[in-house]
Amino acid sequence: MTGVALAEELLLLAYDDETGKATMPRISLDLGMAAAVLVELALAGRIAYADGSLAVIDPAPTGEPIADEVLARIAADTPHSPSSWVQRLRHGLRDRILGDLCGRGVVRDIDETELGFIHVHRYPVADASVEADIRRRLAEALTDDQAPDERTAALATLVAVLRMEPALGLAGEDARDARRRLEAIAGGAGFSGNVSLDDSVVRPSIGLVVAALGQAIDAALGKRA
Which of 137, 151, 110, 142 is CA-nearest to residue 17? Predict the structure, then answer.
């Protein structure tokens, strides 16, 4: 696994570097991060999608604490659908990931008080290089006709599902162009059902998990009947 998890990448993209506040609805981001942890496990060859449920195919730890906790939880539980898992995992996940990023010096925790007693936390960036690398990979994927690697394709697909174009600093026609490219990446990877998984640029096992999780997020946000 890489040094920055997919769920962390989504969170960093979604938070304003200076204000340290989320720039998108909390429920959308929480569902997306939960899905990202599951995608991370699929990329690591730990879980797969079969018969409508996510199942553990390799219980060996990945070395990433949050992912390993989820892996152990899936292994110990009865089978559940992707929709069920994103709902089960989203609660408290944001605080855990923010805490890890603070501990590694990627963002800072600024605790402010409003009305004399309400604590409000902001998380401005402390190490801009981490997010810069994420944005560079996405920018290359958006401007290159070549298919990106599995991990970047999965990230681009989650960005598309969550409609995070504004978090990329894009608006108007630029945002529409980016969305078309993001959807093309998802389609080319076999994540959106437009391409046979046998012809996709990612492993079929990964395509199945990401496609199922994308549908789960759409359903949770009311985008798909």
Answer: 110
**Nearest one of 3, 20, 19, 112 to 11, comparing CA atoms:** 20
Tokens 């759409």 correspond to: 218
- How many other CB atoms are found less than 10 A from the CB of residue 110? 12
DSSP state letter for 92: T
Exposed / middle / buried, residue 145 (Cβ in 10 Å: 0-12, 13-18, 19+): exposed
Residue 53, helix vs strand vs coil: strand
* pLDDT for the residue numbered 58: 96
In contact, 192 and 214? CB cutoff 8 Å = yes
| C-alpha dist (Å) from residue 37 to 5, 93, 94, 147, 209 | 8, 10, 12, 23, 11
Q: From start to end of 71-174, where are the E strands?
A: 110-114, 118-122
pLDDT given for residue 78 in this prediction: 93
* pTM score of the predicted model: 0.89
Contact residues for 142 (Cβ-Cβ < 8 A; gap 6+): 156, 178, 181, 182
pLDDT averaged over consecutive 10-residue blocks of the chain (225 residues)? 84 95 93 95 93 94 95 95 95 95 96 78 95 93 83 90 86 86 78 53 76 89 66
Whether the Cβ atoms of residue 139 and residue 109 lie closer than 8 Å to each other = no
Q: Where are the domains of the chain?
A: 6-220
Tell whether domain 6-220 is in CATH 3.40.50.10490. Answer: no
CA distance 192 to 202: 13
| 34-61 as b/e: b if 16+ CB within 10 A | bbbbbbbbbbbebbbbeeebbebeeeee
